[in-house]
Design brief:
alpha/beta; 4-stranded parallel β-sheet; 32% helix; 22% strand
């Protein structure tokens, strides 16, 4: 059984980015999107900052929080061989009803890939007052070019 990380959310969070479950590289480093070929941080720094991607995870989180963006996963835990979402079994979802009650400022949920969206909607459906965005996965398993991913990901900031 593998477990998700603690959410990076505070009272200023307005946008919540949701992955499905951290991959092996992320679990080993205990940092979201730690695989060196994952485009998530490069996309965030390209959209939100004028500086190159900071190597310190704490600074990456600060960048998101300075732009009112939180980070978490749809699943609390699951069984999975490898890092691919298609191998997930026996999953348990995180408690989004309580989370959204505690953080009512969250008005946008951005899914990092179709699988996170699928698991979320299967359990919670459409939650009133939330706008949803399904973005292409930033995972290296998604062979879409960085520029194309960046184009899609820029949508949720408008």
């Amino acid at each position: 059984m593998i477990n998700s990380f603690t959410p990076y959310i505070n009272s200023e969070t307005k946008i919540l980015v949701l992955g499905t479950m951290p991959g092996i590289a992320s679990i080993e480093k205990q940092e979201y999107y730690a695989h060196p070929r994952n485009h998530f941080w490069k996309i965030m720094y390209t959209l939100l900052s004028e500086i190159p991607v900071d190597e310190k995870f704490e600074n990456k989180i600060k960048l998101l929080q300075n732009h009112h963006i939180g980070l978490w996963d749809v699943l609390e835990n699951c069984e999975r061989k490898g890092s691919l979402d298609v191998n997930i079994k026996n999953q348990k979802e995180n408690d989004f009803e309580s989370l959204l009650e505690k953080y009512p400022g969250i008005k946008k949920i951005v899914f990092n890939g179709k699988e996170s969206h699928k698991y979320f909607f299967k359990k919670f459906g459409q939650i009133k007052g939330i706008t949803y965005y399904v973005m292409p996965s930033t995972s290296p398993a998604n062979t879409m070019s960085f520029d194309k991913k960046l184009e899609y990901w820029s949508d949720f900031l408008k």
